[in-house]
Amino acid sequence: MGTHFPKLILASASPRRLSLLAQIGITPNAVQPADIDETPGANETPRLHALRLAAEKAIAVPSAGDYVLAADTVVGVGRRILPKTETPDEAERCLRLMSGRSHRVFTGISLIGPDGKQSSRVVETRVKMKRLTDLEIAAYIASDEWRGKAGGYAIQGYAEVFIISIIGSFSSVVGLPLYETKNLLTGMGYTP
Question: pTM here?
């Protein structure tokens, strides 16, 4: 009878999360995106929304004695949850809302261990964006970089020129807070 060595399954289709894990020397054994309803609950804050989605994504992927890591990034302006933008109009609305002000980026991470125990965290980062001109918004929309991104921008791309300051985790804004993820994995006994 063979010994089962727990594998690491990443419950995400995000190429950014894969490259962030690679940055810290971790390559998941499998990538299995979780298909869940991401509609915010009534009166759900951006923080709780990120935490709930990460936990539900981890649970949605069958683990069978393996580690399952899931994450979700949510951009919030006040209590308002900004969408993962799919249309140019959505992206423009988000950019105009964040223009010249601060917003918060919440990334929920959730890990299920081989024993079935689940541990979750949420990391909050405050981001201040410059006041954007109509021309800057139009050029960014034309770049298509915003497509499918929480809040309509990718900080690791051209949009970084719009950022005045960031307080918190840069990797969390990209999609996976590396410090907290590594600690969560180590704390649950995962070794690459």
Answer: 0.94
